[in-house]
Predict the structure.
Amino acid sequence: MKVVNPATEEVVADLREDDAGSIAAKYERARQARPAPLADRLAAIRRFKDLLATHKADLALTLTREMGKPIKQAGNEIAAMAGRIDYFLEKTAEVMADDVVLRDGKLEEKTTHEPLGVIANISAWNYPYFVGSNVFVPALLTGNTVLYKPSEHAAMTGLRIEALLHEAGVPKETFIAVVGTGEAGRALLAQNVNGVFFTGSYGTGRKIAETVAGRMVKVQLELGGKDPTYVCDDADARAAAESLADGAFYNTGQSCCSVERIYVHRTIAPAFIEAFVEVVRAFVVGEPTDENTYIGPLARKDQLAALETQVKDAVAKGARLLHGGKRIDRRGYYFAPTVLTDVTHQMAVMREESFGPIIGIQVVDGDDEAVTLMNDTDYGLTAGVYTPDQARAQTILRQANAGSVYWNCCDRVSPRLPWTGRKHSGIGSTLSAWGIRAFLQPKAWHLRSG
């Protein structure tokens, strides 16, 4: 399997791809593995956290070379892993503790928690450390074994993760990487795993759900989003523009929770749009290995055509192109940061996930119209509002059909809160106590003495 640097279009690695036979053998090793005691599991993950910090610069460069993430942002992702891992280290024992619900004379009732078994973790390329660790860290800590398939666009990073986990003391049979494209993923799903945890597109997630339907195994799907934000008439136009431009274009717009639709109240729209375009024009597009680069290449070449199609469709239906709108004439998979106004929900850019540096801004006349448009989507991952009025914000956000909502912020994930989608954005939750319990199955105990 060839790994291509999206900034140079050069092959940077040739990796041996797993086939059905090697995947079956890896599954058998994982099935026969027995978890270490909780104290040992906690110690190993703590050492893994330390190794990530030790090797941050080298790991960031590997990630940048294979998927184009600007080097500063790659380093930020790895550095932020410490906080996520610390949460799991602090919370897992509490979540796994026996829960005694009744002691009445000779009768005791309690719940214990047992691991699911072998977990198939099919992960994503855009944030391979965040997205992967949301699954494999709590899965390992709760006593499961993990067959980890990184995306083919972040396979070198996936192999580095495997090596560091083993160096940290996670047994080799407990965490096993599976390398390959969709064919390897299908072979992995053919194994008799006890849980399937996938992060990626709605289309692939639906196929996975259909593949394992009827097998009665735990399935969680963290899928895409078409994340809306509403800027109210009382908001600070400049502050909202700076925040939302970052929320829309960070990681070159390749995040499931990137801001993908902006609705702005008519009275503040001119000031907001002017400030927004000014911020976007200042973004540095360049080589991702340059510390000053903010916008790098797309990770996938085929996404260039998808973005071109959205721009063409929007302009043909009356949108105004204020900035960008086309590929950048240079080596690599570069697309100019793009801002469209006068957009409507008849345009693909306001309905279909973009997953790139492109945003549509639609003017609205009030809160009710904004809420209606925010909910006019097949997705339900995040939604946000900018206003100094907390009561107003909460009234709007209570009506948003989304798993996460934001007031005066965006594109934010916390290990203390569940990360969960609605509708085409997926099923199940990672992070928080919910994301630990996802890897456990309860056992009810009825105990009568004498």
Summary: Residues 71-96 form the longest helix (26 residues).
